[in-house]
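quick one before i forget lol
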Amino acid sequence: MDIVANYHPVFKAFLAGSFSGTFSTILFQPLDLVKTRLQNPTQHVVAATVNNRIQPGMITIFANIVRHEHIAGLWRGMVPSIARCVPGVGLYFSSLHWLKSKLGKEDLGPMEAVCLGVLARSMSGVALIPITVIKTRYESGVYKYNSLSGALKAIYKAEGIKGLICGLGPTLARDAPFSGLYLMFYTQTKRAIPKEWLNTPSTASVLHFSCGVVAGVAASLATNPADVLKTNMQLYPDKFPNAFSAAVYIHRTYGVQGYFKGAVPRMLRRTLMAAMAWTVFEEITRSIGLK
């Protein structure tokens, strides 16, 4: 930690963010996989009746994956997930730290938190959109890529640059508002808690995690429609060349509820992942002298 303490603050924020993103990405990958399968328009997963009890689609997907791909199948797409989320979280936190330093203040108001969260996530989202496309296709089970580099080459050869950035609009419409809303709810919830509680080692982590859960639930629900559009566009770019065509298909096929397919596993993953990432980030930044 003494060596890290001498690094530039933005680089320390990147390291802390990447470190926090690694644990949460690995732990919650099964939820992301199930979410992608639920949103795949070719997989009509509905509630199933087992022993006279209704099993929701999420449980059905879990059971099918374990039955056909074994437990390890729940972590399908782990390589692109880590390749996207770990540097993505690092870029987000370092961008956020840099933007805060430029603004010259640590305690953010509601609108400042929204704006900085949107800018920071947009910067990392644009940089990593090719990995996002590969991650979605890996998890869907529709595409059979052998490696990350092989997937990049295959997509570029078949679809060109357009294939590597498909779904960028919905991705930013999902991630940027999520981060802005999340940061606003997170900072405002923290502000409502007495500072002496946050500075107490025995309660700080629990409070940071709780703030993250509250913020994550609200932000996840608000941005789920954009996530559904993104998944459809990235899995079937020929069928859905733009967000409007995907929206029309979803509305005609499923109605309004179609925009919330996969909402439960996504809400669980994004909420717990973001809460854990922020909790670990807060602890690491305190230990390396960033705060």
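fyi The radius of gyration is 19 Å.
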